[in-house]
Amino acid sequence: MISGAHVIVYSRDAEADRAFIREVLEFPGVDAGGGWLIFKLPPAEVAVHPTDGEPRHEFYLMCDDLDAQLAELAAKGVEIARPVSEQRWGRLAALRLPSGAELPIYQPLHPVAHSL
């Protein structure tokens, strides 16, 4: 039986991004050995989208109130990399990780499956 999913985020500064996830996003985690941190994620869901190009994978954080979440993160000094935009499927923004990469975050307007 499948017991979970493991998401990998590649980073040019993994140590700084791990600290961000631990200290700013406050995700609990375990040390898998030698300081290699693996974090517990909130409930998740997966969608499969068609593509004409090369297949790729994306990782988005989800929240119930995007404006409140962004305000809380901004108060912690997090840079909002992309301001809120209205999509037909939700309200989308992005956070700036310490490595410089963007981490999308959105408030879904579609039915969610993560709590089924």
Main sheet properties: 4 strands, mixed
The CATH architecture category equals Roll
Across the major sheet, the strand order is: 3-6-5-4
Oligomeric nature of the chains: single chain
Strand content: 25-35%
The CATH class designation is Alpha Beta
**SS summary, helix count:** 2
The CATH topology: 2,3-Dihydroxybiphenyl 1,2-Dioxygenase, domain 1
**What is the global morphology?**
globular
Helix content percent band: 10-25%
**Overall SS class:** alpha+beta
Number of domains: 1
* Averaged pLDDT: 94
- The tally of beta strands, per DSSP, is 6
Taking the alpha carbons of the first and last residues, their distance comes to: 17 Å
Model regions low in confidence, pLDDT < 50 over at least 5 residues = none
- What order do the SSEs take from the amino end to the carboxyl end, as H and E? HEEEHEEE
Q: What is the CA-based Rg, rounded?
A: 15 Å
The CATH homology group name: 2,3-Dihydroxybiphenyl 1,2-Dioxygenase, domain 1
Give a description of the structure:
InterPro entries: Glyas_Bleomycin-R_OHBP_Dase (IPR029068), VOC_core (IPR037523). Residues 3-108 form the VOC domain. This is VOC family protein. By secondary structure, the protein is of the alpha+beta class. It has a single domain, classed as Roll (2,3-Dihydroxybiphenyl 1,2-Dioxygenase, domain 1). 18% of the residues lie in helices and 25% in strands. It has helices spanning 14-24, 66-75, and strands at 29-31, 37-39, 61-62, 80-86, 90-96, 102-108. A four-stranded mixed β-sheet has the order 3-6-5-4, covered by helices on one side. A two-stranded antiparallel ribbon has the order 1-2. The mean pLDDT is 94.
